[in-house]
Amino acid sequence: MAKQEITYNWGKDHLQIELGNRIQPRIRFLFIAEFILMLSIASSFLHEAIPVAGNFTHFMLCIGATIIYMLASYRFISRIFFKESLYITTNAITIVQYSPFYRNTRTFNWNSISPIQYYGKQAKTDHPLKGNSFDYFGFETQEQLIQSLHHKGNLCFVCEEERIYFGRGIYTWDAEKIIRMIKLYVGPVMKLDEELDRMVTEFEQDNEA
Mean pLDDT lowest for which of 99-103, 116-120, 176-180? Predict the structure, then answer.
């Protein structure tokens, strides 16, 4: 499933931004590999469970295989079809994160949140073997991959001492355009931190040049 284009829908009293699915190809590959692995384990359990009749152990193996099938399918579909959208009004921003199995909607008033910042990827300490010819197992690459797997979003703000992340897989060039569109709609009610404000200003200047 390829990345979807970000779309902007301007309404009379709102701006809706569809971020779509931004999963990196290598992360998608890991999800597929995990799904295949879990199906293989479940299939081996099921193979051992046949025939089921008259044997309690085989019956429990069959139940276990069914649970693994269901869990694997849930995790895979929830991850691979994860999407985000933003619903913007002059009073609030609503962040919607959803998949075929769940939908999480949260609304925040503009006057109750901190300046928005571009968080990007969380800074981390380089692995001791980074750049070392002895890093045969690619520990540095593995750490970067794990970081990407657990990344919550590239944009964030703080509301009531909770850090809210959104825009998973959104990179600087997309973030600049998204923030610029929101800024055009809501005006100065949306606050940006110094770094993101600089990024957006440079983006506007480059487009005007």
Answer: 116-120
